[in-house]
Amino acid sequence: MADIEIGFAGIGLLLILLAFRVPIGFALFGVAVIGLSFAKGPDIAISLIQIEPFNFAAHWSFSAIPMFILMGCIAQHTRLASELFHAARIWLISVPGGLAVAANFSCAGFAAASGSSLATAATMGRITIPEMLNAKYEKGLASGVVASAGTVGNMIPPSITFIIYGIFAEVSVTKLFMAGILPGLLTIGVYTFMIITRCWLNPSLAPRIELDVTWAMRFRSLMPIWPIFILFSSLLAGFAFGIITATEGGAFGAMVIFLITLFQGRMSINVFKRSLLDTLVSTTSLLWIAIGAIMFTRFLAITGTTEAISDLATIWVGGQLSAIIFAMVIFLILGMFLDPLGILLLTLPIMLPIFRGLEMNLIWIGVLVVKFIEISLLTPPVGMNVYAIKNVVGDTIKLGTIFRGTVWFLGCEVIVVALLIFVPLISLYIPNLSG
Asked: Pick the residue with more confidence: 67 or 115?
């Protein structure tokens, strides 16, 4: 059997293993080792096992991931999320669907501190959904807004997804962070417009809350959440002016939020232990999947499968727009069955050669890839953010109701994706300035 045939057989075996619910890290690693043993011999496979996992784990950019995860865990365990929603509620209570709009903005704010869509949805869901239900908000709107706005955690910097993409695509993580700012704000803006318009046309979705709010109350509500503004602005300023790299930003962000919460009296030994434990569990899980992906990437490259796929795709796909649509379809289909990280690490070894072959800007493509992953977090049957919300609300809201609530937001995503595809400057404007 020729090397390329072994490569394509490996892809087929991987899909079979995934269909049988084999954990993606084990499936990627196992197929890579078996395939390399058949193609080049057991000695080459063992040699790569000794070299590649270490090289990847020792990659300088990867060290940012546990630091950003730690930053998010500290923010999650120190009540910043509840005060963020309280402030947004005070400022936005007078607009139609005020609590839903507040949940939308507070999810974006917490995403800037956590870098994780699932953490954002789960944390903000516990805080915002009960208050919206108490105010007689329609259940689909109350749950759908948090599930959908939580996905922005992948786009707004710092983003763990961008770090992984940057490592595999060999592009600047800092520029990816900068590229995610405007698309993230655009998504939140389109969501806000849709919520206000729906609730204005149909007030029964979100009954108005009569609350006498003064400007003094509004400004006082900002006092407890100043750590979020300091953290986000200091990171962005550091990235934009080249003071810190994206890798250094992880340690810087974790240090800043630790010192701020310590100064506020929120940090305790118990909170710090829980944050460290959550960080260790998340990093270990992510690292194992990533090592499996890097081994699978090497397997495809050594067998010549990557080059063959790139050549075939260039012929089949034709142009850049066709490649983007092809990638979008693949991501959305896989999003029905796999978690976001699994989708990213499974597809990058195959998709990146196609994008390079068509000479596409990999920063712009990175934003589109992350946007496709965000959408996959909402699509049935396995919309991870939807299940995170279901876990939060229990039997209060049915799973079908949550999925129906996200349909309006998926409609918004169609608009955002179209703008990002046909106006690449939305993604590239800030990176070009900082460059």
From this structure: 67
DSSP string covering 265-330: T---HHHHHHHHHHHHHHHHHHHHHHHHHHHHHHHHHHTTHHHHHHHHHHHHH-SHHHHHHHHHHH
Q: Are 185 and 428 in contact (CB under 8 A)?
A: no
Average pLDDT over residues 160-187: 87
**CA neighbor of 307 nearest in space, from 350, 250, 371, 343:** 350
Full domain range(s) for residue 8: 3-434
Q: How far apart are CA 62 and CA 288, in angstroms?
A: 13
User: What's the total number of domains in the chain?
Assistant: 1
337-348 pLDDT tens trace: 666 776 777 778
Phi/psi zone of residue 244: left (φ > 0), alpha (ψ -120 to 50 degrees), beta?
Answer: beta
Convert the pLDDT of each residue in 105-115 to its tens digit: 888 877 777 66
Cis amide leading into 381 (omega within 30): yes
Distance CA 232, CA 239 (A): 11
Other beta carbons within 10 Å of 411: 11
> Among 79, 392, 423, which Cα is nearest to 224's?
79
Q: How far is the C-alpha of 347 from the C-alpha of 69, rounded, in Å?
A: 23
Closest CA to 370 of 409, 327, 307, 408: 327
- Buried b / exposed e over 25-38, threshold 16 CB at 10 Å, is bebbbbbbbbbbeb
Task: Write out pLDDT tens, residues 307-318.
Answer: 776 666 666 666
Report how far residue 435's alpha carbon sits from residue 429's, in angstroms, rounded to the nearest whole number. Answer: 10
- For the segment 346-357, the average pLDDT, to the nearest whole number, is 80
